[in-house]
Amino acid sequence: MTFPTLASIRAFLGNFLRENSAWKVGTLLLAIIIWAWIQSEEVIEESAWVKVEYATPEGLVMAQLPTQRVRVTVSGTRSEIKALRKKQDSLQLDVDMQEFKAGVQTVDFVDAEIQGLPEKLEVVGLVPNSLQVELESRVLKTVPVEPAVVGRIADGFRVSRITLVPDTVELSGPASLIEKVEMVSTAGLQVAGLAETSVLSVDVTLPEANLSRTSTEQIEATVEVESVTTTAGFDGVPVAIRAGGWTSETSHVHVTLAGPLSELQEITHDEVTAIIRIPEGTPPRQVTVGLEPRAAARVDIVHSGGSTIEAVAIEPGRIVLEPEE
After folding, report:
1. What is the predicted pLDDT for the residue at 167?
2. Which of these, 74, 175, 272, 309, could form a disulfide with 305 (CB 3.0-4.6 Å)?
3. pLDDT higher for 265 or 40?
4. Which pLDDT band holds residue 28 (cuts at 50, 70, 90)?
5. Who contacts 193 (Cβ-Cβ below 8 Å, separation ≥6)?
6. CATH number of 229-323
7. Are 94 and 113 in contact (CB under 8 A)?
8. What does R_g of the chain's alpha carbons equal in angstroms?
9. 279-286, long-range: CB < 8 A, 24+ apart
């Protein structure tokens, strides 16, 4: 038995492709078209999430928020399923409960209409396909609003007061939940870095998902900020006598300043001086002075801070002056 050589096989294929090439190409294209059509018309199944919207009777509300999505399985051709994938986010299941009464009721999703679903697709399953909901009276209640602060305020400052306008909100919801609500809080009031009074707009945080506000008005929060008052000590502050003819053995003192932290932090050691003031005509005898702002002979602390900074103590507390010989 003689086997064909590689050269003879190549020659045969070359002749086959050259003879009636147009007919063969047409046949190949037709086969591809038929294959693509069969693929597009093949029936398959696909699953998608569907948003659920509930319509409740006037004056009634669901006691607990039910499922907000169901999983639907549909059957259809590949081309129809492809169209479904493009509009999956717009699918919505409308559940009409307008004829329901107060109490526990059964909702059948199978009877509900899915909005946005291509007409030729067939629904073959829903998970869940039904559920029980409890309807009860819708009531209103006005409750106070408390501020909720988040973030760290600027160094040297603190929040002194927060004023809310309005400071109450009206809530709507099932009676069993509303009666338990005594107050609500704002969403987080961001005070990070605040160094001055600011007005912020915030929403209200509701304690339950099926509670709602009867108004969409935002809360205006006025956050009042003030400097933190504290003290700072300065060692080795030089003493200067603002008068001739007097001397003292005390050349340096320890000074304590009080005022806003943010301003105290700006004062350096070399910006503080103790000045002794002696009125002209003071008899040349031993004089003792201290931090007595209304005294004629006194110690004044001079510093680079503003009027909100004051000296509250020196050490030693009294300085003895002697007339120069």
Report:
1. 95
2. 309
3. 265
4. low
5. 151, 152, 153, 154
6. 2.170.120.30
7. yes
8. 43
9. 279/243, 280/243, 282/243, 284/245, 284/323, 285/323, 286/320, 286/321, 286/322, 286/323
C-beta neighbour count of 5 within 10 angstroms: 9
Averaged confidence pLDDT in the chain: 86
- Domain 43-128 class? mainly beta
pLDDT (tens digit, 9 = 90+) per residue, 98-149?
Answer: 889 999 989 888 878 888 888 788 888 889 988 999 999 999 999 999 999 9
Owner of token pair 């039910």:
66
Q: Up-side HSE of residue 60: CA atoms within 13 Å toward CB?
A: 18
User: Per CATH, which fold does 139-227 belong to?
Assistant: RNA Polymerase Alpha Subunit; Chain A, domain 2 (2.170.120)
What pLDDT shows up at residue 111?
78
Least Cα distance to 276 among 239, 325, 234 occurs for 239
pLDDT digits (tens, 9 = 90+) for 206-253: 988 889 999 888 899 999 988 888 899 999 999 999 888 999 999 999
Question: Average pLDDT in the 10-33 region?
Answer: 59
The Cα–Cα gap between 194 and 224 comes to 10
What's the rounded Cα separation, in Å, for the pair 237 and 249?
14
Neighbours of 210 (CB within 10 A): 15
Measured distance CA(187)–CA(204) in Å, rounded: 6
Structure tokens given for 322: 């002697």
219 and 164 Cβ atoms separated by less than 8 Å: yes
Domain chopping of the chain, boundaries: 6-41, 43-128, 139-227, 229-323
Backbone angles phi, psi at 152, to 5 degrees: -105, 125
Hey, do 139-227 and 229-323 end up sharing a CATH topology, with the first three levels equal?
yes
pTM of the model: 0.58
